[in-house]
Design brief:
The chain is an alpha+beta fold. The chain is 54% helix and 25% strand. It has a four-stranded antiparallel sheet with strand order 1-2-3-4. Strand 1 and strand 2 form a beta hairpin. The longest helix is centred in the first third of the chain and has 49 residues. The protein is flat. It starts with a helix and ends with a strand.
Length: 112
């Protein structure tokens, strides 16, 4: 009877541990899937650039910095195709420049 009581007493802890392990495994799967999606997007962007469908990053950065003076701190290629370039200004503000990846036209500039 004592082993049965001990098992019953430990049962909630075992269930919690199993749930935590499952959550960690699920989190690892989510990270792996996100990494795979990011790699796929990079490959698609590179292929589109090689085909001449979108501008190379060097041109996009030059256009963004001519629109907002400062240091580029982040660049993201989005579907559409759109580039989002975050620029840290001399005043310490971060501004996001959204550009059409095909022609470099500035779509919008906003504060972060």
């Amino acid at each position: 009877m004592k082993t049965r009581r001990t098992f019953i007493a430990l049962l909630p802890a075992l269930v919690l541990a199993a749930n935590a392990a499952h959550a960690q495994d699920h989190g690892a799967q989510d990270k792996a899937a996100a990494k795979a999606r990011k790699k796929q997007a990079q490959q698609e962007a590179f292929a589109a650039m090689q085909r001449g469908e979108i501008l190379p990053l060097t041109k996009i950065l030059a256009i963004a910095q001519s629109s907002v003076a400062g240091d580029v701190v982040e660049v993201e290629f989005k579907g559409g195709p759109v580039y989002e370039v975050k620029v840290l200004t001399a005043s310490g503000r971060v501004r996001e420049v959204v550009l059409d990846a095909r022609n470099g036209n500035v779509i919008k500039i906003e504060d972060e």
